Amino acid sequence: MSMEHSAQRLKGRVAFVSGGLRGIGLACAERFLAEGAEVVLSDLDAEDSATATEVMAKLGQAASYVSANVAKEEDWVRAVALVKERHGKCHILVNNAGIDLTGPVEDLTMEGWRRIMSVNVDGVFLGTKHFVPMMAESGKDFRGGSSIINVSSIMGLVGMNEVSAYNASKGAVRLFTKGIAIEFAHKKTPIRANSLHPGFVETPLLKAGFQRWVDQGFAEKSDDLVAGVVGSTPIGRLAQPSELASAAFFLASDDSSYMTGAELVIDGGWTAQ
Amino acid sequence: MAGRLEGKVALVTGGTTGIGAAAVRRLSAEGAKVYFTGSKEEPARALCDETGATFSKLRVQDAAGWPGLIDEIIAAHGRLDVAFANAGTESGDGSIEDVGLEGWNNIVAVNQTGVMLTVQNAILGMKRNPEGPVGSIIINSSMNATRPLGNYVAYSVTKAAVCALAKSAAVYCGQKKYKIRVNAILPGVVETPLITQIMNAQPDPAAARAMYEGMAPMGRMAQIDEISGLVAYLASDEAGFISGAEIAIDGATTAGMMGV
Prior knowledge:
The complex is a heterodimer of chains A (273) and B (260). With 273 residues, chain A is an alpha/beta fold. Chain A is built from 8 helices and 7 strands, in the order βαβαβαβαβαβαααβ. Chain A has 2 domains: 12-201 and 240-266, NAD(P)-binding Rossmann-like Domain (Rossmann fold, 3-Layer(aba) Sandwich); 202-238, no CATH class. With 260 residues, chain B is an alpha/beta fold. Chain B folds into 2 domains: 9-187 and 223-248, Rossmann fold, CATH 3.40.50.720; 191-221, no CATH class. Chain B has a 7-stranded parallel sheet with strand order 3-2-1-4-5-6-7, sandwiched between helices. In chain B, helix 2 links the parallel strand 2 (33-38) and strand 3. Chain B starts with 8 loop residues before the first strand and ends in an 11-residue tail after the last strand. At the A-B interface, helix 5, helix 8 and strand 7 of A face helix 5, strand 6, helix 8 and strand 7 of B.
């Protein structure tokens, strides 16, 4: 669907996207804006950084940015206060910020383990915890209620060689999402919660991860790793961030009003094999 | 919402009532030319008048009838882009102890063989598209694929079977480099005319309704148009990287247990 013909199906809604300056997060922000939503995004970059300034100029007036570390509770408190002050409501939360960590389990450090858990798991918990009161109120505005979209991974569904820490963190996101979905539904809190499970997506995180494997001598060049991944994906290509954004948009919209506690796997058939 | 499926041609099996009819309405509203099958001619005529869709009387388990339908669709529109394998039954089902061979065979014929024939013939049709094999196939499974019902053994088994069918077909299409995606959706309890009929036939319809509503943590049944939103998304190019997936749409029913 071209953006020009977009039906503005998120008009009147406010969205918060963590990890919003690049990759899947940025694509989500762009899509929500194209559908008429107002969007606040967060990332680690300083508010006056070149990247933040450039991205925000491109996104336009309906978007705003807050520098926040998802692993820090005080940053979430500040982010929620800012959304409340600027918009007074929040209907969509995309807990997207994430990092990776690979290597043999005996070589992983406690520090590295803590770090990935703090971003990938604590970040999702804290974002949810602090946005829920506002989203519960805002959820009354629309048939489908508010929507929390937690970005897990196919690595939250299946294990992979030397990916144990990332597997554990993304598996936690998957079940945390089911837990809160049942909790909200049970209490008739108008918030739905679902997890997204991207396969291999052409993002800065994927490129950086592949480069690290090249540096560690697993492959000669990053392109060989891409070719390997593409070759093992039935659809035969990498996903584009916009394809994850359209899934997030579907989960954010009233079209998914009966979907909660579900997993949306977007992996070109990778886990179906 | 108009336009997302503009230029596409879709087929919905079991389209005369319930989830199928809602899908016919939604796919038509988004711009697709829609064909649907079924056995109830009266509601079919009304749905054609309402949406501009075309009805073709076909029993999905009738292997001999399929090539003619695909030919008819391609003769009329030159292509096939979307197939929603929705037709299903639970007629004659029972528990493992009680189910009769006739009931079992009937359910397997419609829910499993019928879905296989739908997917097979849809792929054959999609291969005739001018730009090569492209399309999206959506199988209507059920949450009972993962949460089988004690009193509906054939229904539960066939709904699980078609999930494997979706994955097998998805992987195969990838191997053949067909740009055909195949996915399964797993709805919870949907307030279809069939469910309404079952509820009303109980000694205490209100209690029956409460029982069905209480199955989902969300505390209600799905409305039929809440399923068609997912069907339309999977049908569209927006879902271009989704294949071989099982997607629950059940108000958190299969997400876990409600607790105390």
